[in-house]
Structure formats: structure tokens, C-alpha cells
Amino acid sequence: MKKMKFAVIGYGGMGGWHAERLQKSDVAELAGVYDIRRERNELAESRGIHAYASLKELLADASVDAVTIAVPNDAHEEIAVRALNAGKHVICEKPVTLTLDSLDRMIDAANANGRVFTTHQNRRWDVDYLAMKQVRDSGMLGRVLNIESRIHGSRGIPSDWRGEASHGGGMLYDWGIHLIDQMLMIFGFENLESVFCVCDHITNREVDDGFRLDLNFRGGERATVEVGTYNFIAMPRFYLRAEKGTVLLPDWREEATAVRCTHWHESEVLPVQTAAGLTKTMAPRDGVTTETFRIPRPASDVHDFYRNFVKAARGEAEQLVTHAQMRTDLKAILAAFESAETGKTVSLT
Description:
Layout: E1 4-9, H1 13-24, E2 28-34, H2 38-46, H3 55-60, E3 66-69, H4 76-85, E4 89-92, H5 100-113, E5 117-119, H6 127-138, E6 144-152, H7 171-187, E7 192-200, E8 210-217, E9 222-228, E10 238-242, E11 245-249, E12 256-261, E13 272-274, E14 277-279, E15 290-295, H8 304-313, H9 323-342, E16 346-347
Helix pairs in contact: 4-5, 5-9, 7-9
């Protein structure tokens, strides 16, 4: 089957990533790129990639079926609507845009032109997240009660537009949108009930350089999503508690370790000595009442995002990242900002 032709708008870090993936895709090919910076267009051409002279020229190219937008967040809407009105299918980098009204205008343009419009939630293919989703979906530890998801680094916000409020910078928009989306994929977008958020401003006063966000779901499940850019000792990537056990995943490069409770009561629990006295409550378990095992890293192929998009554009499949999911992700982000500003829990129901 003939490959779908894509152009990439914005040839920075993620634009370059998309261009590489398109060059290696089995369903798509790269027609070219466009960036407002001449040096980036020249870089593309030095790598054998066609660079369009203008956005107008790119959108006028009838051979281009779809565009991937990888520019600062505040510019997404204008470019996406122009591309959709030009008859192109559109992939927009995350966060898709900065307000619900803006997102609705983009969705309206897609619907009016009969084009597929989605956002790039590539972290749905992260194997660490997929391991947590597998635990819940399989029921191997019974009902999942809560998940803690963290990304910790120590180098602050990247020294570009991501540190500027006017461009939609900050960690909630940068990493938060991914980690929120992962938790909603696990517990259900329709089940999100409320959020509570606290933001950090350690190295940057203009935007959040870290945050802790609690997500509360209708069934009583909870998720904590945390990003830190001034953490010189990182906490575990994932910590999951369920009715029948616990899962720890220290780092995204590692396998998760699960401990399942096989027998609740022990015939005799010996108290342990702590600094201030004896305790039975915190006495460690033994191998008689628990079993420990590894959760293999799930298979994953990030190219499946483009494979699905091409099928959706051809009417052969539903798009994986839906308009409704995009709205819920953005609603959660905006509610998090409101919570951080007011110091209160914000309802989404």
C-alpha cells in the first residue's frame, strides 16, 4: 500500500524526532520540513531532507497528506487550523493547546474539513507505564488502590521557551500532560472526579519547574503524579498498591518487582524493635505469606502511533488519542493550575 506523505512543521528537538521516525516508518514517508529559523531548515537540507521556503508553500503542496506540528505550545492552534483548512490531516505535539476554547476550535476545524486531528501521546508506549497498566488490567493483584508516578531530575527546565509562560512552558504542560494521560488510560478518562495540585518554583518563578498532583477517581482509586527538576536523589518511577500486593519500579530501564500476599494471617507475629519501642504492625513479612516475582517489560513499538494515525486517516480504524481524551487531559491540566493557585481541590464532575 502506498505510504502517506507527511511534512513536519518545526524542526527542533521533537520535530527532528518525528522526522527520523517518518524516515523509518513502514506506513509513512517524510515529504519535508519547515521551520521559521533559517538555520534549522539549512540543517534539514544538510541531512538530505527537503525544507519548504514557507508554511504557505508547505500547505499548498498537494502531495502532502498530513502534517505533524512541533512548535511552541502557544502556536499550535493557528497552524493546526490552517493545515486542517488546507485539507491536511494533523498530528499536534502535546499539550495540544493551552485552553479548552482553543482545542474546540481545532476540533471544529477537523470536523468541518473531514480530517483526522490528534495529539502525540507517545508516552502511551512507555514500557514502564505499560507494566503498571498490565497489573491493573490483568487483575494479578486484585483491585488497584493507588499508583504513584514520578519523574525526577536535577537540571531544571530546559533553557528555551519551555521556561516562558507566554509560550505555555512549565512542567505541568511538558511532562504532566504525559503522566496524567497515562493515569487516565489506567483508571479511565470518564472516572476522573477531582484534582489537587501544588507547584514548585525553585529555579523558575514564571512557570512551574515541578509539581505534585493528586488525581481522585469515582471508584475511590487515587493516583499521584509528580515531576521534579531539582531532585538530586530520585524517588522510584512507579509505586503501586493493590488489594493483594504491591509493585515497585525503581527506574524506567528496569523491570518491576511485585510482592503478592498469599496468606493474610500468620500464626505468630514477632514484634520488632524500633528506635522508640516494639511494634507488630511494622513487623516484616516472610516467604510463607508472600511471593515475590518480576513483571517482564511489555512489548512496545512507538511506530504504532503513526500506524494507527494512517489507518484512521484512511477510514480503517478509530484514532487512538481521541478528541474526548484530549479534552479530558487538558481539563485536568487546567484544573491542576486552578488548584495550585487556590490551594483547594478542584472538581471535574
